[in-house]
Amino acid sequence: MLEEAELCFPEFLNSSCKKLTIPHFEVVLMYIVLSSISVLTAFLNLLLIVSISHFRQLHTPTNLLLLSLAISDFSVGLLLFFQTALIDGCWFLGDIMCTVYQYLAYVITSSSIGTMVLISLDRYVAICYPLHYSTKITRGRVKVCIFLCWMCSWVFQSLILIENLKQPGKYNSCIGECAFVISYIAGYADLAFSFIVPISIIVVLYLRVFVVAVSQSRAMRSHIAAVSLQHSVTAKRSQVKAAKTLGLVVLVFLLCMCPYYCVALSEESNSMSAYLLILYYVNSCLNPLIYALFYPWFRKSIKIIVTLKILKSGSSDLSYTAS
């Protein structure tokens, strides 16, 4: 017989799940760490969302893509609160909330990867075809692409998880479990379209961007003394800097995401997958920190928001120096 303290729901002695045997100190530490990451992730990405949405000069095609990514990262921060509920292996929020949590996690992950592909494509056109960038990459087209990215994520994940959505809690083996099961075909389809294909596209595009950016940097250094080329050089330098910054965002994203998918592909233990999933969640906290480090306009907008100057009339028309 199991002791009642070992069960998630002692009142359901014969059907309750068993709690994980984790030292109390580790449980408290994990609660503190996950809660802190969750609050920090939500707060930093909310600052980015407000910045790009409020200040008109920041309504560029590239920043719209960053806005889409920030919305995904902000949602991840909120989902981390649900992740803390599973620290001891017990889910107390019911089958419907379990389904909502898991479904949103799949959709947000898929949309984040799709947005990373769009960011890579944006930098590819900006660096490799700079003369055509303003005509090919417009705010209207970017908005349509972002909409399609999110819609495709919702539809695709709905098809992948249809059995779980039809009957929440269908695959739970005991009360207090939050299980999500997909078929092998659906799993491989998700792996292909949510990982292998987009990652391949991102790597190919950024390899091309890297080669062209290096050649442009050399050309700029050799012509920097020519006064007539100063404007062109400054524009190219700005594009190269943006490519490097967003390249860092993509690289960090890949480093945080690939281990989880690799372990999932190799069918390792669930405990390792859980820790690597948290690593992926941490990535959502790192993105706004990267923007704050490399983008002066983000630092300036944070100062305006924190000091409440954003509430003043005409604050949306404040100008930012190019960066």
Automatic annotation (TrEMBL):
Cellular component GO terms held in the UniProt record: plasma membrane
GO molecular function (one): trace-amine receptor activity
Protein name, entry field: Trace amine-associated receptor 13c-like
InterPro entries (UniProt xref): GPCR_Rhodpsn, GPCR_Rhodpsn_7TM, TAAR
Subcellular localization(s) per the UniProt record: Cell membrane
Chief site of localization: membrane
Membrane topology value: Multi-pass membrane protein
Keyword annotations: Cell membrane, G-protein coupled receptor, Membrane, Receptor, Transducer, Transmembrane, Transmembrane helix
Entry similarity comment: Belongs to the G-protein coupled receptor 1 family.
Top-level taxon in the UniProt lineage: Eukaryota
Residue ranges crossing the lipid bilayer per the database entry: 28-52, 64-83, 103-121, 142-162, 191-214, 246-266, 272-294
Domain (G-protein coupled receptors family 1 profile): residue spans on this chain: 44-291
